[in-house]
Amino acid sequence: MSVNKKLLILAGDGIGPEVMGEVRRVIGWMAAKRSVSFDVDEGLVGGAAYDAHGTALSDETLADAMAVDAVLLGAVGGPKWDNVAREHRPEAGLLGLRKEMDLYANLRPALVFDALAEASSLKTELVRGLDILIVRELTGGVYFGEPRGIETLADGTKRGIDTQVYTSPEIERVARVAFELARKRGNKVHSVEKANVMETGVLWREVVGKLHAADYADVTLENMYADNCAMQLVRNPKQFDVMVTDNLFGDILSDCAAMLTGSLGMLPSASLGGEDESGRRKALYEPVHGSAPDIAGEGSANPLACILSFAMCLRYSFDMGEDADLIETAVQNVLAGGLRTGDIMQDGKARVSTTGMGEAITMELDKLTG
Ligand code: NAD
Questions:
Q1: What 3 state SS string does 198-222 have?
Q2: pLDDT given for residue 85 in this prediction
Q3: Which of 6, 180, 10 is closest to 107 using CA atoms?
Q4: CATH 3.40.718.10 for the 131-260 domain, yes or no
């Protein structure tokens, strides 16, 4: 039994602890049925941490997050903390983690499960079988560039300033992640920028092109302007395999791709940092959805995004692709069998609770491995 897989679970607020409970169920199943044990620690983040310690991310929790192989996060936030000072808001805990762990590559898959293809706002034939991976640069660009701010000019009018800035190493490291991932999938990368009107876009295209020629000539590379990409995503999304883009365009395009799949409760994500000397990457896995205060405490939340985030953790932090495939197949089969949480409910299907869905997944895992 391996005991060196260190996980930190930060369930957070709202439905975070509810959906994370079902990830624990899957972790328990893996220990019992696959002889894979994780060294699991727990901590507080977001509003829960603020209530306990007066800060959304304590120094101890941050130190724990830096020391483990992977962090699993539920969700943070809620109306209870609406009036808390900005630096102590639940979201500041999550942003602090991403920043301190230097998680520069945000991986957002847009995967359409056959049973849910009809839930997409696009025609079923356009999205059935869709499997895109968007790699968004997460720690640079216009969200962090200086100078920024709002100033009052001599004539009394105001001026708002944001600065889009990228260095070549920042572009190269995120592009490298995209090329490496493409090799394990469809071997195609779309690099997305606006080199036609932005200097950072010109540099982006140059750096990605050089890296491609030097180290990844076996991977197909296509450059695409971000506006065209937005159009292509809803015109013919299956043309994409891996997409790599900057922080701002990635924010927008990944939300657009997410909606192709039809449900927030199904979408996992991973955020990866650089490799240390031993080849280990800092990593944080979390569902794309928030803390859903409107349904928190009801036991009705969909745990699949969180369970699929754990599958990503197995794939990317522990090189356990086979186990990740197993979990994804279990999700596919349970949906095909007609079970649904409220958010993905369709006529003629059977509605289950959060725990009901988690139980169905482990029962299906039993079947798949039995
Ligand atoms: P949200 O994602 O929490 O909810 C949006 C809608 O989707 C709600 O109707 C909710 O009930 C539903 N929903 C979300 N996840 C679901 C699930 N797993 N199962 C069933 N239904 C689900 O977004 P919001 O309402 O804009 O934000 C609520 C709070 O969450 C805010 O405080 C916000 O800041 C925070 N938030 C946190 C994160 C994060 O932790 N990464 C992300 C987004 C929002």
A1: CHHHHHHHHHHHHHHHHHCCCCEEE
A2: 93
A3: 180
A4: yes
Which H helix or E strand runs over 280? none
Residue 46 CB less than 6 A away from ligand 1:
no
Beta strands in 235-357 (DSSP E): 242-245, 268-275, 281-287, 339-340, 350-351
Q: How many CA atoms lie within 13 A of 82 on its CB side?
A: 4
Q: How many angstroms separate the CA atoms of 348 and 332, rounded?
A: 18
Positions marked active-site:
143, 194, 227, 251, 255
Q: In whole angstroms, what is the distance from residue 72 CA to residue 7 CA?
A: 7
Distances (CA, A) of 112 to 57, 123, 238, 260, 264: 34, 12, 11, 8, 12
Q: Which of 81, 83, 291, 341 to mutate to test the pocket of ligand 1 (most atoms within 8 A of CB)?
A: 291
CA angle 97, 99, 105 (to 5 degrees): 100
Cis bond before residue 147 (omega within 30° of 0): yes
Residues of the chain with CATH 3.40.718.10: 1-112+262-370, 131-260
Q: Taking the chain, what is the end-to-end CA distance rounded to the nearest angstrom?
A: 20
Strand partners for 227:
none
Say what the pLDDT of residue 49 is.
98
> How many Å lie between the centroid of ligand 1 and the Cα of residue 282?
25
Per DSSP bridges, beta strands 188-193 and 220-225 are parallel
What are the structure tokens assigned to 40, written together?
Answer: 């699991």
pLDDT at 70 over 70: yes
Q: pLDDT by residue (tens digit) across 79-90?
A: 999 999 988 999
Which CATH code of 3.30.1540.20, 1.20.1440.230, 3.40.718.10, 3.60.40.10 fits the domain covering 1-112+262-370?
Answer: 3.40.718.10
Cβ–ligand 1 distance for 77 under 6 Å, the answer yes
| 342-to-6, 77, 302, 319 alpha-carbon distances in Å | 33, 21, 8, 33
pTM of the model: 0.93
